[in-house]
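Re: weekly structure request thread

Next one in the queue (481 aa):
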Amino acid sequence: MSYLGIDLGTSGVRALLVDEDGAPLASVTRPCAVSTPHPGWSEQDPAEWTDALEQAIGELRDTAPTFADLKGIGVAGHMHGATLLDAEDRVLRPCILWNDTRSHAQAAKLDGTADVRELSGNIVFPGFTAPKLLWVRDNEPEVFQRVAKVLLPAAYLNHYLTGTHVADMSDSAGTSWLDVGARAWSDRLLEAGDMRPGQMPRLVEGSAPAGQLRADLAEKWGVGTVVVAGGAGDNAAAACGIGAMAEGQGFVSLGTSGVVLVARDGYAPDPESAVHTFCHAVPGQWYQMGVMLSATDALNWLARITGATPAQLTAEVDGMRAPGSVRFLPYLSGERTPHNDADIRGSFTGLSTATTRADLTRAVLEGVAFGLRDSLEALRSTGAAPEALLAIGGGAASRLWLRIIATAFDLPLQLPAGAEFGAALGAARLGLTAATGRAPEEVMTAPAVAETIHPDQDLVAAFDAAYADFRAAYQGIRAVQ
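Done, posted below.
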C-alpha cells in the first residue's frame, strides 16, 4: 500500500509517495508561475496547480510501481489564498495569494471591528483571506456578486480530487472567518467580512477523511478506492512531518523567512503580540508561530550587495564569540512578529572605520537570531515553554548560525536525521491516517536527532545584553522612520 502527500507551494507542486510506515518511495516536483500585475499584488491561476499535479502524478504512475496501490492522499498548501468559484464551480479570477498586500486598508478596518480579534484569535493581516474578499467587493463588485464558494488553495485541490467543497481546520484558521477556539465558522466573523455561511466549504479535521478520489481520476490514474484526507496548511503539515504535535514540541525554520512554531494542547491566543494562533491538523490541538519576514533572505541580500556568496561570507566569520558592537535590524521587507509593521526597514548601527565585511556578516547572523528570539519571546508570553526546538530550512546548514541562535534562545536546537520531514511528508501522513484510521500520534512521530546544538552557556549573558540593545535599536529606528 502507498500514500500520497501533495505539497502545493507558491513555486510549485511536490508529490511524495510513502509506504505504510511513512518511508519515502518516490517524489516529483513540478513548477507553478506567480503573476504580479501590479506592485504588491501576487496571483496564481489555479489551473497551474491542477496541471502541475497531473504532470507529477503521471510521472509517479510511470516510474513508481507502488503508486498503483495508492490508498490515501493528503494535501498541504500555502495558506490564506482566495480562490473564488461561481455556482458552477468555475474559477472567477486568479487566486490572490498569501503574500499579496493590496487589501491593507480592508485588513486594518476589519482588524478594528468588534469581536474580530477575540473570535479569530489573531490580528487581521493583509495576507489573510477575509480582507481579500473585501477588496474584491470594493474593487471588483461584479466578481464579488458571483462568488458562490471561497476555497483556500489546498481546499481547491481537495475539490479537484473529490468533487466536494471541503477544507481542514488548520488552513481555515488563517482566514479571519473561523472561530479558532471553537474550530467552526463564525457567523459574527462572516458578517464582519460581508460573507455568508453558504459560501464556506465543509470543515473537517486534517487527519479525517474529506472524501474519496473521484472515479474518473481513479480510472485515469490507474488506482482503486482512495481516501482523501482533510489535509493542512503548509506549516501545520510541516509540524506533522516533523512530529511537532503535543505541547511544547516545535521547530525553528531558517528559510527565506523565519518561523518559530510550537504545538499547544490548548487554545491560548495573544493577537497583540502578532503571534499566529491556528488550529493544528489533528483534533484537539493548536499551534502557535511567530514569523519574521527576512531570515536567510537577509544573508542573501548582504551577499548580493557585497559580490560574495552566503557561504563565502560565513566562512569569513571567525567562529563563536560574544556579539560585537555592530547591530543589524533585519527588517528589509517590514516585520510580522511581534511588530506587525509593514513599513519598518532594516539598518546597521555601530559602524566605524574599523568595521569589516565579516563584522557585517556576524551582525546579520545575530540580527536574524534576535529577530527569531522576538518570536520565541512572543510565544513564551502565551505560556509556550519549549525545552528544545528542531532546526530546519536552508540556513540550518550553518553550524555557526545555529550556535548563535541556540545561545540567543538559551535553548538546544536539534538537527533531524534524514532529508524527508517537511510539509509533503506531513500531508502523506495525514492521508495515511485518514485512510487507515490509525491514531495520529502513532503516525506523526519525530525524526531521529542527528545532532544537538547546545547554547554556549559562557556567552548567554552577553547575548542577552546584545538582545536588549537590539530591542532598543528597534525603538530608535521606529521613532525616526
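The two ends are 58 Å apart (CA to CA). Residues 2-235 form a domain with the Nucleotidyltransferase; domain 5 fold (CATH 3.30.420.40).
Next request, please.
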